[in-house]
Design brief:
The complex is a heterodimer of chains A (about 45) and B (about 500).
Chain A: H1 2-29
Chain B: H1 3-17, H2 31-42, H3 47-50, H4 52-59, H5 62-88, H6 95-102, H7 105-142, H8 148-168, H9 170-198, H10 221-228, H11 230-235, H12 241-244, H13 252-280, H14 285-290, H15 294-303, H16 305-339, H17 346-349, H18 360-383, H19 391-419, H20 437-454, H21 461-485, H22 497-505
Helix pairs in contact in B: 2-9, 2-13, 2-16, 4-5, 4-10, 5-13, 5-20, 6-7, 6-19, 7-8, 7-16, 7-18, 7-19, 7-21, 8-16, 8-18, 9-13, 9-16, 15-16, 16-18, 19-20, 19-21
The chains are: A mainly alpha (about 45), B mainly alpha (about 500).
């Protein structure tokens, strides 16, 4: 089962790194002028 | 103050004002402090250690290799999903506020209360763990007998101490949390180094960490393994703290989002390293699983009783830091919910101390509620001494289910709002996952449903009954009063700029 465990650990680290990389790219590319705060609607019930 | 920081604080305040809220809390936390508060609440030295025996008993050594990693994989996805929402909607209400504006005010109300139940469980569970560890140590030092009653008294004293520190201010708590993050890493390094260089016996071969099929319970291995996941799943809770302290964080749309995500990712890595070396040091797994504290048993066997005692003290201090941070998080959640009048006597809990700029009354409410939960369990055990479950398993199961249901609701509502075209690309904050968002949200939700069922099956059915009981109380409260009277965070949108300025002026006078 050792190889299965090692693969699982690598997958977990890989997923974390990929998400972090992706998020970091989006933080850098973020354009405030195209952003609109999502504040919901006043009549939202 | 540096001009750059001043400008950032102004921008952050402006972002908060858009939601109709005044900047009442002191915004002073940097990125590391925001990370530290969640890292301290996850606290690999609390969850993974205090439930080490639980994991080993049910899942054997394979629980530490497979169980920890499987849970971490899915929790990383959940954390990423939450980071995205924190970046888009940066308010201290976090889960509650997200659910209220992505769904409706009633979704928000239920999310808040379910989150609150989980938070009570987590604060009580952490400080109770601390008391369970510290009481026997103090008993041997001061010559008294450690009993459930002395543990409960110590638990009460600990809560009082944590309440006082939190009341005094976020600056002090943030510094203590910064120290706590380094402290956790330092203890793991010392522990691993000692096991590698000074262990009395040879370490087990690496594949021991991934050995499956051995359980010390009377259940079939597959079921036992799933029950054992509570160890890792409880450890990975409380990282919503980075979102609850978002109104105290500078540049929160980026820093709090990273705080949520990185606290989980680094906890996985350091937790795995620690669990791997401790598990590889096991000499007799059966004896360890039956010991009062399996973790300390393994350490003492490997490094001797003296070192075992030292580790016990180090771990106990880590739990103290964890409890301190969890009260910070819980009190901010209560404060945010109360400023929208979601609680009985909301006016009091939403009040900010002018001197310390902390939600002082909310902090003390947290202390009372957490003590009440442990007292309830203590009384049940006094009435029926033959109960088979442990207080810790009860508190941890309540917190896992409460928190993860509260994590799941806004994720579901976000997917729904996206499908309806309500939540669009332009609404995402700077920290986002792009087109990975939807599949990550869906996988997160699947795991949340699965794990919530797993956490309340026997022997933890008492936690399930407690949660059902609490939900019935919520239904009654909702139908009887809040359905008509709770206006939700949407009501704050009507607050005028003048009113916001007037509220903020109270703290600058």
């Amino acid at each position: 089962m050792l190889w299965l465990g090692v693969i699982l650990i690598l997958i977990t680290i890989g997923v974390a790194v990929a998400i972090g990389y992706r998020a970091n790219e989006n933080v850098r590319k973020f354009d405030e002028s195209k952003h609109e705060s999502f504040i919901g609607s006043k009549s939202n019930s | 103050m540096k001009p750059g920081k001043e400008h950032q604080l102004f921008e952050d305040k402006k972002d908060l004002n858009k939601f109709g809220y005044a900047q009442e809390l002191l915004r002073d936390m940097g990125g590391f402090s925001n990370f530290s508060i969640s890292f301290s609440i996850i606290s690999i030295l609390t969850g993974a250690v205090s439930l080490y025996g639980h994991g080993l008993f049910y899942g054997g050594s394979g629980m530490m290799g497979f169980g920890w990693t499987i849970v971490a994989l899915f929790v990383i996805l959940i954390a990423a999903s939450m980071s995205e929402l924190a970046s888009a909607i940066p308010t201290a209400g976090a889960l509650y506020h997200w659910a209220a504006i992505l769904g409706s005010k009633r979704w928000g109300w239920y999310t808040a209360w379910i989150n609150l139940i989980g938070q009570i469980g987590i604060v009580a569970g952490i400080d109770y763990s601390f008391s369970l560890f510290a009481d026997p140590l103090l008993a041997s030092a001061f010559g008294y007998s450690s009993t459930e009653t002395t543990t409960l008294i110590l638990f009460g004293i600990t809560l009082l101490l944590h309440g006082t520190f939190n009341h005094i201010g976020i600056r002090l708590v943030a510094r203590l949390n910064d120290f706590s993050a380094w402290y956790h890493i330092g203890v793991v390094v010392i522990l691993v180094g000692s096991l590698v260089f000074f262990s009395r016996h040879e370490l087990q071969p690496l594949d021991y960490l991934f050995q499956v099929g051995q359980t010390f319970s009377d259940k079939p291995y597959a079921i036992a393994f799933l029950i054992g996941l509570l160890q890792a799943q409880w450890t990975f809770t409380g990282y919503d703290a980075s979102a609850h302290t978002i109104e105290e964080t500078i540049n929160p749309r980026v820093r709090a989002a990273w705080g949520i995500f990185t606290s989980v990712a680094f906890s996985f890595i350091f937790g795995f390293i620690m669990l791997a070396f401790v598990t590889l040091s096991i000499k007799n797994a059966a004896a360890a699983s039956e010991a009062d504290n399996a973790f300390i048993y393994v350490i003492s066997e490997a490094l001797g009783g003296t070192f075992g005692s030292v580790v016990l003290w180090l771990v106990t201090f880590a739990m103290w830091f964890c409890g301190l941070a969890s009260i910070t998080s819980f009190s901010r959640m209560l404060y945010a919910f109360s400023r929208d009048k979601g609680m009985p006597w909301s006016r009091h809990w939403a009040e900010i101390s002018r001197k310390y700029r902390t939600p002082a009354k909310a902090i003390w409410l947290v202390i009372i509620l957490s003590f009440a939960l442990a007292l309830f369990d203590y009384m049940i055990k006094t009435i029926n001494p033959n109960t088979t479950y442990t207080t810790l398993a009860f508190l941890t199961a309540v917190s896992v289910v409460g928190l993860y249901v509260a994590y799941g609701i806004p994720l579901y509502l976000k997917l729904r709002a996206e499908a309806n075209g309500l939540f669009q690309k332009k609404h995402y904050g700077p920290w986002s996952l792009g087109n990975w968002s939807k599949p990550i949200n869906v996988l997160s939700l699947i795991w949340i449903v699965f794990i919530c069922v797993m956490m309340v099956i026997p022997p933890n059915e008492t936690a399930g009954y407690a949660l059902i009981g609490m939900f019935v109380v919520l239904l009654i409260m909702d139908v009887a009063y809040y359905k008509k009277h709770f206006e939700g965070p949407q009501a704050a949108l009507g607050t005028s700029d003048e009113e916001i300025k007037r509220q903020e002026a109270k703290f600058t006078e």
